[in-house]
Amino acid sequence: MTGHDPVLEALEEARIHKDQADRAIRVLLAYARELTPRPYRLADLAAAARMSISGVRTAYTRRDVETARQMIAARETAHQGQNP
């Protein structure tokens, strides 16, 4: 496609934001189910994410769990660096 179409550009930008939000939801679900000392209940997560329980159960992958783990480690490292 050639030319500048503000509607198509806005749609593409909205899709990018939606993809980022979907990714964030998957990582948060992975964290809540896999990395907390006491996993969150599926029903509570489903209600918060407006998903079905089975949808929550299958929403994230091992890669999402690893991403959440890396984010936690990075945050802890940054926090330790701030304490003298």
Strand residue content = under 5%
Q: How much is the average pLDDT?
A: 94
Give me the strand/helix succession.
Answer: HHHH
Structural class: mainly alpha
Biggest sheet layout: none
Radius of gyration, taken over Cα atoms and rounded to an integer in Å: 17 Å
Description:
By secondary structure, the chain is an all-alpha fold. The chain is 79% helix and 0% strand. α2 (42-49) packs across α3 (53-59). The N and C termini lie far apart (55 Å). The relative contact order is 0.12. The model has no long low-confidence stretch (mean pLDDT 94).
Can you give me a brief rundown of this structure?
With 84 residues, this protein is mainly α. The chain contains 4 helices and no strands. The protein has helices at residues 6-35, 42-49, 53-59, 62-82.
List keywords for this structure.
flat, 84 residues, single chain
How are the elements arranged and paired?
Blueprint: H1 6-35, H2 42-49, H3 53-59, H4 62-82
